[in-house]
Amino acid sequence: MKMPSFLVALLAASAACAVQAAEPKPAAGTPKLAYGQMMKHGDKVIFSPCRDPSYAMFEDVSANGALTQALAGVGLNAGKKVYAELLGVLDNNVLKASELNFAHTDGRCQLPGGEDESWRAAGHEPGWVLAVGKEVVVLKRQGQPDIRLPTVAFKSEGKQHRLESAEGGNALQLTFERGLCRDIKADSAFGWNATVSVNGQLLKGCAWQR
What we know:
By secondary structure, this protein is mostly beta strands. The protein is built from two helices and 14 strands. It folds into two domains: 5-105, CATH 2.40.50.140; 117-209, Lipocalin.
């Protein structure tokens, strides 16, 4: 199969670079979320930003290659196209990524939540989904009425973000903790684990920033 010309150019440029050190160093600058499609060709991974014709080489600078393992888990190494949201720095046409926010097999580009939505979380058994908005936290559970509570400020400590809200006889506590979270049923991987306690019921799942 003939390789597209842009991939030939990128792979040739990558091959011409100096050999990297055994332990990759984090890129300088403030990491930001990058949204795009990822494809693997040989031992190289191409990142194509959403709504942007440019391309970048992908470099994993996460601890112990955790990011590469997460992407492999959703099919990148098997030749599947993966939609990914990565925290990283663009340096000389190389996306140096350090953390995962969200990755999905054959997923399409998604719009960031903006000011209207900052987090989402979801889980199974029972099925549930939660959205943290600017003013309201909404929890939907299978077979139960929705719960809507006012959004309050998160309390952050280390790799954890916590929120507690109560109103009208309902009480909710949620914790988002940095760490790889796999949803095998959805062919997805996330950068956060979610724990939600609502009116005495404990729910566990995955979370991602919007």
